[in-house]
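Example 3.2
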Amino acid sequence: MLGFLRVFFILSICTQSLIAATATGYTLTNAFPGLTFSNPVSIASPPGDLNRLFVVERRGRIVVITNLVTPTRSIFMDISSRVTSAGDTAVGGEEGLLGLAFHPGYATNGFFYVFYIGNATTPAGTGRHDILSRFTVSGANPNQGNSGSEIPYIIQIDNANNHNGGDLHFGVDGYLYVSLGDEGGSYGVYGNTQKINRNFFSAIMRLDVDNRVGSLPPNPHSSALPSLTNYSIPPDNYFVGATTFNNVAVNPANVRSEFWAVGMRNPWRFSIDPLTGTTYVGHVGQDNIEWVNIVTNGANCGWNFYEGDKKWTNNLPVGFAFTPPVIEYGHTNSRNCIIGGVVYHGSRIPQLRGAYVYGDHSSGELWAMRHSGMTVTENSLLLSSTSARVNAFGVDPSNGDILGATPRSGTNSTIERLIYTNRVPVPVISQVSQSGTVLSISGTGGPANQTYYLVASTNIESSSLWTPVGTGVFNGSGVFSIDSSVEPTTTHRFYRLQVP
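Structure, written as tokens:
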């Protein structure tokens, strides 16, 4: 029999389709009026720092916004002389200063890490290189990075100016994760896809920048690694000691043991949920599909055997283990440049809490996605704003708000804030009754003529266990009534209404 009933009202939608009904009331607004930027591509903040935000400008500058209540901006560090970019006026292109991450112990050690494209000379040649480096904050000024403190970790020659990835994040495990594109061109022309024993491309790396006891030295790579002691390899990285890959023998001494996941085309922006450790990678596609992968250690996202879940070859290696997208969409309605997002853990938009918010730069659309394992339970279109096409997401450390970097010509780019302006009617339960195995719930005060979903779970703490058990429509006066079957052996069950 039913032990007790709990009902929660959450604005969301349960659907497996990609483009769901638009959720009204969401909009973007200038997060810092009066502050402008030059082509921002990344937003970050040091762990535990609730009153500063750092914005990466592609031209080679890191801007710090201090005092988020009354924000001011200054240049934290300028390495534009080392960076290859298209300058202030271009909002496209994929070169420049691309990523920034602060060490978990930044408050005491002052270490931060950047990924940029710059000119260099290595044994592989002179010209464009992908560069991963560590810097240190100035000892005299916490709002000033020491540009002379650079320690290069990887200097990798790159033959094309696109598909650079370059996003950086520390995981909940304290390791540094780095996204790498396939070097560029199109269709994997440079031969870096589905390779673990060549160069630093087409992967997500996982590095131990603290050289912990038990970690391993990287395998030598004379043309890309200036040192074998700047970082170590976590011993549980999937490809450590690998002797085969895709059913082909490889020499474990040549394996890029830095790789944590492979099969990447252009993982432009990715994120790691700070509460669950779930890693979401937004994959910019070729000509057909944009997609998001949930990535784990050893995952193979398929490129270039697959674009999203579109298979390009019938000759897959024996035993090929493909990690399919959790969501994907085609190149319709101006959609052709997915921007990997972040999971919302703020308090000001409770109906979005726990949702993964991502967008498409070309269409200006933003969505909120929830999932149970690899099953999508919600994918709501929040808004479409062609005047604010986000190309990177971040979080306001002071309140958890979702922020978006919106590049515009010249130095007029802004950081936008996702807000919700609608006051939504909150339904009130007026009657709950049970007859045999049928539970009846009715009430008033819902949004008129809107669809609602009844979902249930036996575990209130686990969002992944909530499952749809019924659906209905509020009438014109906001009244609702719904029946749900109850298993005779059920001792307790929680219910909630989800309203788009």
